[in-house]
Amino acid sequence: MSAVGIGIIGVGVISDTYLENLSAFPDVEVLIVGDLLLDRAQAQAEKHGVPAFGSADDVLAHPGVDLVINLTIPAVHIEVSRKAIAAGKHVWTEKPLGLDREGAAELLREADAAGLRVGSAPDTLLGPAFQAARRAIDDGVIGRPLFAQTTFQTQGPDLWHPSPAFLFAQGAGPLLDMGPYYFSALVSLLGPVDRIAAVGTKAREEREIHTGPNAGTTFPVEVPSTIQIVTAFEQGTSAQSLLSFDSALERHGVVEIHGTEGTIVIADPNQFAGRIAYVKPLGVIRDGMSFEQEWIEIEHEDVKVGRGLGALDMVRAIAEGRPHVASGVLGFHVLDILLSAQESAATGQTVVVESTVAPVPLLPEGFDPFAATL
């Protein structure tokens, strides 16, 4: 075998990161990029040394492309991914897998029938920091996991984004924009979710654009801009999560897992690197004793990787006949969780999550993205 041919559909801002990273992985080669705007596709092809550009159909028709990376807007993720499956290509899609359960389920059925793979972002689960944290928990450094806490809170992307309206529209908000990172991490660590309850609020019905050519104009807020979620997992653990675009206090990437024998804090699930450390219980507390706890750092590789790692893992997993980490089934379960939280916030009722997922695999030991293995 040789490098696997990749085609990219959608060359917006995030495509730069994918193209930069994929060009560093010897096992894959980007052969063509496609977009609705051909001049934009041409510019990205020339910028990153991709030999061809064109429309989405050109990418799907390219005979050398075995894997399509879908970087389109969430509203058309399912449509584009299904076309790729129909064209006989494996698919890696940006998050979320889709915006409705029925379409996402049909995509997975079609891929399975065709003997093709679907992968779904986020692939931060494959980063060296998360992999090290997962192995530490599996090795029992905190005993049996009991509950988790996660936090993402910010003043909102309208402060810096020149066109932020889509981030407050149906299919987005902090739940569907940032939720995939946190709940993919939780499911990988604690297993599938059984049921969920949520409360959502809006700070205001309209937001103002603060930067760019449209600064000073307003747009409607269609979804909760703050949502608080309580999650019950199938294995009996639980979690509480805050996702907010309304907070004056900026706090990102908080993931704490509390167990019978300690607590571990792990890296921001929106990043591939970061700190991992844990504390052990204080034991017996007597008058005058210090409550200060010693943090035990977990050292891990500091490999500079980024988005595109999940597509590489898919390519190698296909060749090796093993499951890939960020699978379409995991993406579907996370989508089901997020939509269930959205429904709970709208109705005030606890929602049972109907889907499930097998234990999320770890990367093979010694996985080196910069090695040629095919």
What does this structure look like?
The chain is an alpha/beta fold and 374 residues long. It has two domains: 117 residues, NAD(P)-binding Rossmann-like Domain (Rossmann fold, 3-Layer(aba) Sandwich); 173 residues, Dihydrodipicolinate Reductase, domain 2, CATH 3.30.360. 30% of the residues lie in helices and 23% in strands. The chain is built from nine helices and 17 strands. The chain has a nine-stranded mixed sheet. Helix 5 links the parallel strand 5 and strand 6. Helix 4 runs parallel beside helix 5, helix 5 runs antiparallel to helix 9 and helix 7 crosses helix 9. This is 1,5-anhydro-D-fructose reductase. Keywords: NAD, Oxidoreductase. Its EC number is 1.1.1.292. One of its GO terms (molecular function) is nucleotide binding.
Strand content: 15-25%
CATH level-four homologous superfamily name of the largest domain? Dihydrodipicolinate Reductase, domain 2
State mean pLDDT (0 to 100 scale): 95
Largest sheet entry? 9 strands, mixed
Q: Could you estimate the helical fraction of the residues in percent?
A: 25-40%
CATH architecture of the largest domain: 2-Layer Sandwich
* Total E-strand runs: 17
Q: How many domains in all?
A: 2
Strands side by side in the biggest sheet: 16-15-14-13-7-12-11-8-17
Net shape: globular
Structural class: alpha/beta
CATH topology of the largest domain, which one? Answer: Dihydrodipicolinate Reductase, domain 2
